[in-house]
Design brief:
Elements lengths: L13 E4 L18 H12 L8 E2 L6 H4 L5 H11 L5 H4 L15 H20 L5 E4 L20 H13 L3 E5 L6 H6 L6 E8 L23 E6 L5 H19 L3 E5 L17 H19 L3 E4 L10 H12 L11 H7 L24 H15 L1 H7 L1
Parallel strand pairs: 1-2, 1-3, 3-8, 4-5, 4-7, 5-6, 7-8
Length: about 400
């Protein structure tokens, strides 16, 4: 594929938040959460000429006061002590750390605070008018709770960022989560808040962590009607996923009318992902940012903050999927055709699996699904139930 060329002074509508220190969020060499995917994605974008040093904004560390917007101070103190060897895993278990999913690692508070600060950096660039869009692929840790870690997530950067936006900028926030796992930590943090709307499209919790995200989870009190869940069936394919995504996101945008949108872009709904049971391909990752971008301009004067999230095939899936977010933010053509030979030659020797050598997935990627029609029908019925509140109001 040819490199992107042109006057880069015309491309100041997006910033890419990154510093090498983000790689310090690492549980172990064998843990499925592996931020080497940040390096893979950045190198791929640089190889096609889509990312320059001028685009990259260094991260900052969130203060304890900022982290406390989303987390209990005693929990923060526990994370600090655990990361400096002052507590045993048994002493930390009630806080969700020292577990198989979220083991203790050295300097875990410092590494986690950096990821939160990275998302706050993205927020400030967008909300202060320095950039229309901002991308922090190191964020998206959507399972963290007020006083407990969960599902690889110590601090929940999106929860902190939303409260930060409310306090500092007094804005209404729409949070859209397309990770295959339910965005539970963010949802519950704002379940009774009428000024934050959460939308999560995820594999049903029947067989997948965290087991929540039913269509009946609609919010509470003044926040009733601002929580939207779209639990799709295992083995859902591109067509059904995108039908739900397009209808849900369009209708919720129009219903809630946010001032700013945050998208969480987990890349684990792909067929290759080892932790989920969905049958997505690169087609969904090409389309997801296109609609978010379009509607951000229609409703939010372009204010769009994107974070990363899940994605556990870090070699074949995540770099391609996340590259589409950045090229969309930069108004660049959607990459297609062969991946750069230089990138393939650099990273293939480190990968335990053969790369897909093109931006698109091969067709067919998998054997036909016998239950395709049944799955699509169940998903369509779920969509109607999930959007019932909006469509009733429109009558």
């Amino acid at each position: 594929m040819a490199k992107f060329t042109g006057d880069r002074t015309m491309m100041k509508n997006a910033v890419f938040i990154y510093s090498p220190e983000q790689l310090g969020y690492k549980f172990s060499d064998s843990h499925p959460f592996n931020h080497t995917r940040l390096l893979l994605t950045m190198d791929l974008l640089k190889n096609i000429g889509a990312l320059s040093d001028d685009d990259i904004i260094p991260v900052r560390v969130a203060t304890d006061e900022e982290i406390a917007l989303g987390h209990d101070l005693k929990y923060i103190d526990t994370v600090k002590k655990a990361g400096h060897g002052l507590l045993t895993p048994q002493q930390c278990e009630m806080y969700g750390i020292g577990t198989e999913d979220t083991p203790i690692f050295t300097n875990m508070h410092e590494a986690s605070a950096l990821l939160v600060g990275s998302t706050l950096q993205a927020v400030d660039y967008v909300m202060q008018g320095k950039s229309r869009h901002a991308l922090n692929l190191g964020g998206g840790l959507h399972h963290g709770f007020h006083g407990r870690a969960s599902g690889f997530c110590i601090y929940n950067d999106s929860t902190v960022a939303i409260r930060y936006i409310q306090e500092k900028y007094n804005a209404r926030v729409l949070y859209i989560d397309t990770d295959a796992h339910h965005g539970d930590g963010v949802q519950w943090a704002f379940y009774d808040d009428p000024d934050v709307c959460t939308l999560s499209i995820h594999e049903t919790g029947r067989y997948l962590f965290p087991g929540t995200g039913n269509v009946t989870e609609r919010g509470n009190g003044q926040g009733y009607g601002t929580s939207f869940n779209f639990p799709i069936d295992a083995f859902t394919e591109d067509e059904s996923f995108l039908m739900i995504y397009e209808q849900a996101v369009r209708e919720v945008f129009d219903y809630f009318k946010p001032d700013v949108v945050i998208t969480q872009n987990g890349a684990d709904a792909h067929y290759f992902d080892p932790l989920t049971h969905l049958y997505g391909t690169m087609k969904i990752y090409q389309e997801i940012p296109k609609l978010a971008h379009k509607l951000a301009h229609e409703y939010c004067d372009g204010k769009w903050i994107a974070v990363g999230g899940g994605g556990y095939d870090i070699w074949r899936v995540v770099p391609r999927a996340w590259s589409f977010i950045w090229t969309e933010m930069k108004d660049l053509p959607c990459p297609s055709g062969p991946l750069p030979a230089q990138w393939l030659e650099k990273w293939q020797p480190q990968s335990p699996v053969p790369f897909i050598p093109t931006w698109e997935d091969p067709t067919p990627l998998y054997e036909p699904i016998p239950r395709k029609a049944e799955i699509e029908e169940k998903n369509a019925q779920m969509l109607m139930k999930a959007l019932h509140i909006i469509r009733n109001q429109a009558k």
